[in-house]
UniProtKB/TrEMBL annotation:
<dbReference type="Pfam" id="PF06399">
    <property type="entry name" value="GFRP"/>
</dbReference>
<keyword id="KW-0472">Membrane</keyword>
<dbReference type="GO" id="GO:0005829">
    <property type="term" value="C:cytosol"/>
</dbReference>
<comment type="similarity">
    <text>Belongs to the GFRP family.</text>
</comment>
<feature type="domain" description="BEACH">
    <location>
        <begin position="1"/>
        <end position="55"/>
    </location>
</feature>
<protein>
    <recommendedName>
        <fullName>GTP cyclohydrolase 1 feedback regulatory protein</fullName>
    </recommendedName>
</protein>
<dbReference type="InterPro" id="IPR000409">
    <property type="entry name" value="BEACH_dom"/>
</dbReference>
<keyword id="KW-0539">Nucleus</keyword>
<dbReference type="InterPro" id="IPR036717">
    <property type="entry name" value="GFRP_sf"/>
</dbReference>
<dbReference type="GO" id="GO:0044549">
    <property type="term" value="F:GTP cyclohydrolase binding"/>
</dbReference>
<dbReference type="GO" id="GO:0009890">
    <property type="term" value="P:negative regulation of biosynthetic process"/>
</dbReference>
<dbReference type="InterPro" id="IPR009112">
    <property type="entry name" value="GTP_CycHdrlase_I_reg"/>
</dbReference>
<dbReference type="GO" id="GO:0031965">
    <property type="term" value="C:nuclear membrane"/>
</dbReference>
<keyword id="KW-0963">Cytoplasm</keyword>
Amino acid sequence: MPQYVLITTQIRLENGPTICGDELSDPVLMAKLDAQLVRDAGNPFQVYSSPHPPRVILNKLACEGFRVVSMAGIGQTCIWTLYLEN
């Protein structure tokens, strides 16, 4: 089954932290990214957050076989979509 990962960070936080997934993301993969589940104040959901900058996260995901399929900037947020074909 193919797997997608959405990576986001605020432009002013390009050195980290980086959001690596939601509460339904693969916990084994999130551990490889050093990501922990966190809940920001006011949000009813949790996300995986890694202290690493996006470049480090993208490199780690590339080593796992993921490839970037798109990148966009929305307001002050950068978003990368990565894909892994199993």
